[in-house]
Amino acid sequence: MTMKLIPDLPLRLQDGGPSPSLVQVHPLPSKDGLLIKIQPPRDPSGGVLAASPCDLVLAIDVSGSMGARAPAPELAGTANEEYDLTVLDLVKHAARTILETLDAKDRLGIVTFASRSQVLQPLMAMTPENKAETLQKIDMMQPTNMTNLWHGVRDGLSLFQDQRDTQSAGGSVRALLVLTDGMPNHMCPQQGYVPKLRAMGPLPATIHTFGFGYELRSGLLKSIAEVGGGNYAFIPDAGMLGTVFVHAVANLQSTFATDAKLNLVYPTDLNLEETTGDAVEKQAPVELGAGVPGRLSQLTILLSNLQYGQSRDIYLRYGSTRRLSPRSTPEITAVVEYLPTQDPKPTLQTTSVHQSLLFPTTTLDPASIAYHVSRSLLIAHLASLSPLNPQSEHTPSSVQPPDTLPPLANLLATLPATNHPTDPACAALLLDLTGPFPAPPGTPATAEFLATPSRWTGQIALALATKKHYHRWGAHYLPSLAGAHARQVCNSFKDAGPLRYGADSPLFVQCRDRLDAAFDRLPAPEPSLPPPPPPPMAAATRAGLGAQGGGNLGGNVCRSRAPVSMSRYNCPVSGCWAGTARVVLEGGVKTARIGRLRTGVRVVTPRGPRKVVAVVRMPVRGVEMCLVGGELLITPWHPVCVQPGAGWAFPKDVKTRSVRYTGSVYSVLLERDEDPEAHAILVGGVWGVTLGHGLTDGDKRQDVRVHDFFGDYAKVCQSLATLPRRDGGLVLGGDFRKQWQRRVKCHFDQPGKKVTRRLARRSKAAAVAPRPVDKLRPVVRCPTIKYNRRTRLGRGFTLAELKAAGIPKLYAPTIGISVDARRQNLSEEGLAINVQRLKEYKTRLIVFPRKSNKITKADTPKDQQTAETTQSIRSTFSVPQAIASGFSEISKGDLPKNVEGGAYKALRKARSDARLQGTREKRVRDKAEAENAKK
User: Fold this and answer.
1) Integer distance in angstroms from the first to the last C-alpha of the chain?
2) Which residues contact 809 (CB under 8 A, 6 or more apart)?
3) Under CATH, which number does the domain 538-756 receive?
4) If you write DSSP's letter for every residue of 51-96 in order, what string do you get?
5) How far is CA 477 from the centre of its chain?
6) Of 161, 365, 506, 798, which sees the most CB atoms within 10 A?
């Protein structure tokens, strides 16, 4: 019996398609393995960065646990901050973000699941009309009872199968996004989720899972994502919401090919094996039949989606080469099968390469090889912490694994990346493991640091450092990180390692930035939970300024009624520096303009990385600022440290020159820390102090940072609580209030009330929703002869207009119609227009019953109560064009020409002619009679 190496598939060569170099085989110089590189094109053909069309189905958990308060970050030494937002509030906001970036070529479906699942919307093209309808369905979701995760996944996949025959996907990227808190407790499959999904055969779409909060069954979510060819993402709190969803959708929109898989045919004696540990989708090698000469084996590796500009690098290890000889000429054949997304009628395509293993040759540099080998070893180590159970579900240990740090140190000793610490990729991988080095690589201090795992500050080391860390977030975070490295996708802004994936893809960067901007533009969700009673120091605690771990005011719990903008979770915020200054971020490699700094981003401080908690922006005009260090523009009295060990000084004393500046200046508040040195950031190569540094008492001549207000963390939080915020998440400050005796700044002054009034209008609209905020008013003529040809909105409809439209005068005010009994109708035209206006309003009016079980004749039928609504009647029923009148304008060309000789003389002559007309006629008659008498 023989087995075909490649199944019979419809193959089609495409002009201008990818070259055969899509797949490369690199035998390693160490002769112990090989590296398979699948390199998609950098951007779509044609040079147009068009996002791949997507068919997305959102499977949203609406169980009772989703109504719990959304968790906020908790860091050592800080207070717990609580919001009045539920987990479902944040999930719905993420769904709105996804909806915001879709267009007519994309389709979206929605499934909710609690004790049973419900299809809210089949796959629909995201036209403007369908988007408005989808948004209403998202807003109507409310938490109910139990969690039937299986029915949500099953019905979500069925939406793709239902439309396969009726509407072809047309090369679109199909994905099911499961959004849940990961605690299924109803109708779970007895044989397990993975066997149940495998029994369904080839899945119509990839499955991506998102787990919210710390009470997760993260192993199940990761297993579902692996069997579905997707990614699992851990969202511990509100601070990670935006970045995770932005990257997830950006990866889908930058997809080059779907359903990709790699087939390897090689001599059986090689004993090829994957090096990334246990995974649900992992397949064992198959030895080909006796009819195939030389005893060959075939290994299939499922790749799922491939992204533009991002390679997939697979490190395989083989154990024995003793049978390899020049006579046997051993070769390996690598074949990649995939469906391109840019093809309107996708057909399975393949590309293959043959490589001899006898003489290893590679074009890869040693640092690149070391990176990919180290990445595979790290994935295998993380996978060992969540082994597979008999139901093919990852099972993280319920307690901290014993002696986790020594094995982590042993792993570091085996990573080839440690030999290339200056390589950017290797450095990013080590940064997630150990944290930043205290000294340059190769120094004794760095060697001592690497030999002491207890000093490591990387996220992986912190996740395994203590039982509390591992039990709360490490067991959920590590599988998510391992999955990002395994599929080589960027899943957030947080981790330095995955952040490198997709950086060379212009399409991915464009999609990510577009999603990021959409997330920031959306208004914040209205909290579903009632506000708790304010604790002591209410002004400070109501500010909610400890969103990323700060705001610990005397041990009180900081609470926030509602964030002013969702930009607190994802978007730029900024502090007494000019907006053009650049801040050094965690890791010391990347910088960001202070005007684009993001809440929750970790920045470099003299005591290690710290998170940004809050920011203040103050507009200035023509103020004097100091140029320090060649590029930093800062206010004269903001303490800086130009050189380590040189002490703190005012910029006016160390400036290069003074500059007149008009624009905005920014101040930053970091998470609370008792060490004053932890309250400084590196901006433009110069250390600058931040708000709330803790130095309130002392000799200002010894330390210029001492300040009664700026040094008191509690006072700063209390003052910021009184300031308004704009949609971008910035705290707006107008100026500083000062003590008149000493002229010392002691408070932030409020800016103008324009933003506050806008927020009040928004709050009013949300409070009366779905009712409009205004009433229907008639169209009337403006008063006076000069303006009566124009129209405007009047005070109210007359009783005659209401009677003609069939609306009782006492009923009209209850349905949003203004009534003015004093006004009278003076024309039939005006009466007819307002009657028609009332009738049109009645056709679009939705009247809900006062009692759900007692529907009256005047109420709108239930099947029509889900129509599109509006918050402004005036925007829908605008003032029409001017009513036709009996007057007509005279065009300029029809005006008479200028009077010859002047108007004055013409008027005098006309007056004289009129006065003397009778006299002149009498003279003519007398003259005629005299002539007749002579005859």
Assistant:
1) 150
2) 799, 802, 803, 819, 821
3) 2.170.16.10
4) PPPEEEEEEEE-SGGGGSBPP----TTS--EEES-BHHHHHHHHHH
5) 20
6) 798
Six-digit token string for 426: 């290797």
Place of tokens 């806008």: 758
Average pLDDT over residues 233-245: 81
Tokens of 377: 């070893």
pLDDT bracket for residue 833 (50, 70, 90): very high
Residue 523 phi, psi dihedral angles, 5° rounding: -70, 155
- State yes or no: pLDDT of 20 exceeds 50: no
Q: Which two tokens stand for residue 824?
A: 């009278």
Distance CA 901, CA 899 (A): 6
Amino acid, single-letter form, for residue 596? R
Residue spans per domain, the chain: 20-46+257-369, 54-73+83-254, 538-756, 771-876
User: CA gyration radius for the chain?
Assistant: 37
SS3 162: helix
* Residue 217 CB coordination number (10 Å): 22
Q: 675, 548, 661, 553: which is closest to 608 by C-alpha?
A: 675
Q: Is the pLDDT of residue 530 over 90?
A: no
| The domain defined by 54-73+83-254 carries CATH number 3.30.420.10 | no
Residue 413: count other Cβ atoms within 10 Å of its Cβ: 10
In whole angstroms, what is the distance from residue 159 CA to residue 119 CA? 9
Name the pLDDT band for 55 (thresholds 50, 70, 90). Answer: very high
Residue written as tokens 């989720």? 193
Q: Give dist(CA 637, CA 277) in Å, integer.
A: 56
Q: What is the residue-wise DSSP string for 246-309?
A: HHHHHHHHTEEEEEEEEEEEEEGGG--EESS---TT----EE--TTSTT-EEEEEEEEEEEETT
Cβ atoms of residues 722 and 750 within 8 Å: yes
For residue 409, is it left (φ>0), alpha (ψ between -120 and 50) or beta? alpha
Q: Is 594 helix (H, G, I), strand (E, B) or coil?
A: helix
What architecture does CATH give domain 20-46+257-369?
Sandwich (2.60)
